[in-house]
Amino acid sequence: MKLIFERSRSGRGLGLLPPCDVPRCELPENARRTGRPALPEIGEIDLGRHYTELAKQTHGVNDGFYPLGSCTMKYNPRINEEMAALPGFTGIHPLQEEQTAQGCLEVLYRTQKALGEITGMDAVSLQPAAGAHGEYTGLLLIRAYHQARGDLARTKIIVPDSAHGTNPASAVMAGFKVVNVPSDEHGFVDLDGLRAAMGPDVAGLMLTNPNTVGLFDPNIRTITDIIHEAGGLCYYDGANLNAVMGIARPGDMGFDCVHVNLHKTFSTPHGGGGPGSGPVGCKEFLAPFLPGPVAEKKGDTYAFAVPAQSFGRVRTFCGNFLVVVRALTYILSLGKEGIPAAAQGAVLNANYLMKKLADGGYEMAYPGICMHEFVMTLEELKKETGVSALDVAKRLLDFGIHPPTMYFPLIVHEALMVEPTETESRETLDEAAEVFLKILDEAKNDPENLHTAPHRTPIGRPDEVTAARTPVLRWKAE
């Protein structure tokens, strides 16, 4: 389709802005443009059609099945949006007096308490603006704790080889050196490798459980005990909390701090529909180091407080407030019974789809019961037919299904990582399984059809290497 700049014609326009109702403010000469801004000139009907066409070309959780592994692309309930649009929330100013913002402060306080209960933590900060930002904040907590004790030799963070790529990146940003530990043949942390990595320079461990291959590590308490015995702290990456929320708490597994993704587990918009939010919770002994302010309750009123040894802010004000409103709406809607029920539904759906695909001929990287997601390996299929995981992913687009995560985790070759989420019906899962199995049959009988897929999308198969290395992100006038 044409860019809106390509639709532009000199002299066309429309009136969308109301007349100015405030005194005109003249900018000083040195702050004014020397020429007109290069904006498109377009009529109202053409503008409407342009954005309608764009909307038709997008794909999200409201359009079709979106089984993106490890990212929990779950349904965003409409009630969340209604609550976030209430005038009392949208009309608030972050600098107004606390006594005039009691409702908003209560939202922050109740969300802190709810997330603390779900994760088994004693204190929570809502400041971090995304999951990786939460990782970074958790690592700053660990660093501040060791520094406060004068234990400056602890410079290493242990990260499993199946971890999210943001884990080692966050550790480096927080000033640590990263030490990878291997996974065993079952997909769990290799305990011997972990013990071998221990020493007086270990500051902590970053881990998610269920792990990145969708398995709950049966040795989790042994793992956290090993770290604690070495004097380190345990950080929980909450990316996979959707599988265990309300059932198993990171705090009870031995973790000292945790981040959660409101834009994954708690149904707020994800990615381009964000913004995100990655609150961080911690045990009581780490609470003095949290970024402030945090909301607290004093009698019948709410107020802000800065923890005594806070390492400082990680974001302005209190994070993405309207995302917090959405998450609290979801938590209160589901309640104590609904939160674990959602986790159970996620696990049931994943195992149901995995069994249908395994019975149909797909090879699972780690056979057996999974949690909320599973990983398939197409390594043998590629050897036999030349069809890769990328080919299968591209072909799925022709059926209106967003591809699962490709080539991750790196420890699985030709990986496709599938997470159905609890909000999908059995009928949707059956239809998705039918498509996957049809594609598998095509791979064996008509591989060329997959090599050239997709066939029904606005854009076919672009040169992705060139697009990644030399992206064209801006339109330039001739």
Short structural description:
This protein is an alpha/beta fold. It has helices at residues 4-7, 44-56, 78-84, 87-90, 102-119, 131-148, 166-173, 191-196, 220-229, 250-253, 321-359, 379-385, 389-397, 426-445, 447-451, 464-469, and strands spanning 123-125, 156-160, 177-181, 202-207, 233-238, 257-260, 280-282, 294-298, 301-305, 374-377, 405-406, 415-418. The chain has 2 domains: 78-334, Aspartate Aminotransferase, domain 2, CATH 3.40.640.10; 340-456, Aspartate Aminotransferase, domain 1.
Strand order of the largest sheet: 1-7-6-5-4-2-3
CA distance, first residue to last residue: 18 Å
Mean pLDDT metric: 94
Give me the secondary-structure category.
alpha/beta
Helical percent range?
25-40%
Please write the CATH class name of the largest domain: Alpha Beta
Order of helices and strands: HHHHHEHEHEHEHEHEEEEHEHHEEHHH
How can the largest sheet be summarized?
7 strands, mixed
Helix count? 16
As for the CATH topology of the largest domain, it is: Aspartate Aminotransferase, domain 2
Give the strand content.
5-15%
Q: Judging by the overall fold, what is the CATH architecture of the largest domain?
A: 3-Layer(aba) Sandwich
Low-confidence stretches: none
Name the CATH superfamily assignment of the largest domain: Type I PLP-dependent aspartate aminotransferase-like (Major domain)
**What is the 3D form?**
globular
As for the number of domains, it is: 2
Number of strands: 12
Gyration radius, rounded: 25 Å
